[in-house]
Specification:
There is one protein chain. With about 120 residues, the protein is an alpha+beta fold. The protein has one domain: Alpha-Beta Plaits. Helix content is about 35%, strand content about 30%. The protein contains two helices and four strands; from the N terminus they run βαββαβ. It has a four-stranded antiparallel sheet with strand order 2-3-1-4, with helices on one face. A hairpin with an 8-residue loop joins β2 and β3. It is globular, with a radius of gyration of 22 Å. The protein starts with a strand and ends in a 22-residue tail after the last strand.
Length: about 120
């Protein structure tokens, strides 16, 4: 599974407007084609020395090729509208997370000692 993450840093005075825009505009535009799915939006808490607030926006995508297609055909429109709206009050970073499911084999070893005494 591939997760496409964008981390946003926004001026604190724009928090409500930003959240509303993400939920009402950004997510629907980003998922319209069906390439990006399973949107998750979260506030990031940490020891931020900078003023402002940070948020993470995540989408799932099946393959790198599909994400590249989304980047070629849709991302400029979606991100340009976002940047035009919030201008210099917003900065963002995008990156990919690749999850691989691991199969773990458990080996049970015979135990020769009794853990509990048998009551009489």
């Amino acid at each position: 599974m591939i997760v496409f993450n964008t981390t946003f840093h926004i001026d604190e005075t724009l928090q409500d407007e930003f959240i509303e825009y993400i939920l009402q505009e950004f997510i629907p535009m980003s998922t319209k084609s069906g390439i990006l799915t399973s949107a998750r939006f979260a506030r990031i808490y940490g020891s931020n020395k900078d003023e402002g607030l940070s948020f993470a926006m995540e989408f799932q995508v099946e393959t790198i090729e599909l994400l590249e297609k989304w980047n070629r055909e849709e991302s400029n429109y979606v991100y340009n509208l976002l940047m035009d709206k919030f201008k210099e009050k917003l900065s963002l970073w995008a990156f990919l997370l690749y999850y691989r499911l691991l199969t773990i084999k458990l080996h049970y070893l015979p135990c020769k000692k009794t853990l509990f005494k048998k009551s009489v």
